Amino acid sequence: MSNNTYDYQQLAADIKRWGKELGFQKVGITDVDLSAHEQALQDWLDKGYHGEMEYMARHGMLRARPAELHPGSVRAISVRMNYLPAEAGFAKTLKNPRLGYISRYALGRDYHKVLRKRLKQLGDKIKAAFDDTDFRPFVDTAPILERPLAEKAGLGWTGKHSLILDRDSGSWFFLGELLINLPLPVDQPVEEGCGSCTACMTICPTQAIVEPYVIDARRCISYLTIELRGSIPEEFRPLMGNRIYGCDDCQLICPWNRYAQLTDENDFSPRKDLLAPELISLWQWTEEQFNSQLQGSPIRRIGFDCWLRNIAVALGNADPDVSVINALAQRSGQVSEMVQEHIDWALERQQRGVAKTTQQLKRLVRAVEKGLPRDA
Question: Of 46, 78, 133, 182, which shows the fewest CB atoms inside 10 Å?
Answer without folding.
Answer: 46
